[in-house]
Design a protein that fits this description.
- This protein folds into two domains: 145 residues, Periplasmic binding protein-like II (D-Maltodextrin-Binding Protein, domain 2, 3-Layer(aba) Sandwich); 99 residues, Periplasmic binding protein-like II (D-Maltodextrin-Binding Protein, domain 2, 3-Layer(aba) Sandwich).
- The two termini are 12 Å apart.
- The radius of gyration is 19 Å and the shape is elongated.
- With 254 residues, it is α/β, with parallel strands linked by helices.
- It contains eleven helices and ten strands.
Length: 254
């Protein structure tokens, strides 16, 4: 398996190098619809990709569910980054090119508090239960995958009704922003989403017994006019230098 992954990454680097040579002379926009879970990664890597290729990334960030709906409504794109089931659905619909799906990273859900606030104990299942039931309010997303994972965790903990009765929900955006403004005590979302918000302190991920991972997968538009250009961007995201950024932003490269 390691040898296969190594050969794949080598092929990615060769593809990117081939595109980079002379790429600036054919510079163009690359339209990317990206799950908010990978926002911090793409924002940091974008300048390097643009400097290497001369291409310009036009990126829209949102929850995977909402981005999928935009694709289904006909929004044009070159690359889309969503969860595997949603990518699979778009492949079946002919929106994403069959065989183009590439797993990039995985991450779990975590918890954050307002910057400077005491950090609650979430190191164990019992500690997390006490923290969630003792908070005045918890904010989570209703459309993102993190919201579904959090709801499942609450059911497992047996505190769904108690927590949701005092919870605040958002349809999109970052839950950390709500906590940073002092409108909730605790923010729950994917780890990289929490880490990207100024004004909050990330306490950490949920305990392993309650953790569930979200895999972020990229796919190419079936209608892409320049397949080589879009493949070059995916190759860039699979390069070792990108893997280092992915780890630094709270995800695990795949």
């Amino acid at each position: 398996m390691f040898g296969l992954v190594k050969r794949y990454r080598t092929a990615c680097l060769l593809a990117l190098a081939a595109w980079t040579v002379g790429g600036a002379a054919r510079a163009a926009d690359v339209t990317v619809l990206c799950s908010a879970g990978l926002k911090s990664v793409v924002e940091q890597l974008a300048p390097e990709f643009e400097a290497r290729t001369g291409d310009h990334l036009v990126v829209t960030y949102d929850t995977s569910v909402l981005l999928k709906a935009q694709v289904e409504a006909g929004r044009p794109f070159d690359v889309v980054v969503l969860t595997p089931p949603l990518i699979g659905a778009l492949i079946q619909q002919g929106k994403v090119a069959d065989g183009s799906a590439v797993p990039l990273a995985r991450t779990g859900i975590g918890l954050a508090v307002k910057a400077g606030a005491p950090r609650p104990d979430i190191a164990s299942v019992d500690a997390l239960r006490r923290t969630l039931t003792g908070a005045r309010s918890v904010v989570y997303s209703t459309t993102g995958v993190s919201g579904s994972l959090f709801s499942a965790a609450l059911q497992t903990l047996g505190i769904a009704d108690a927590v949701k009765a005092r919870a605040r929900t958002i349809a999109n955006g970052f839950t950390g922003d709500v906590v940073a403004r002092g409108e909730a005590d605790l923010a729950v979302q994917l780890m990289p989403e929490l880490m990207s918000v100024p004004g909050v302190d990330v306490v950490g991920p949920f305990p392993a017994e309650l953790q569930a991972y979200v895999v972020l997968t990229a796919g190419l538009s079936a209608a892409a006019a320049d397949k080589a250009r879009t493949e070059a961007f995916l190759s860039f995201l699979k390069a070792p230098s990108a893997a280092a950024v992915i780890r630094a932003k709270g995800l695990e490269p795949i």
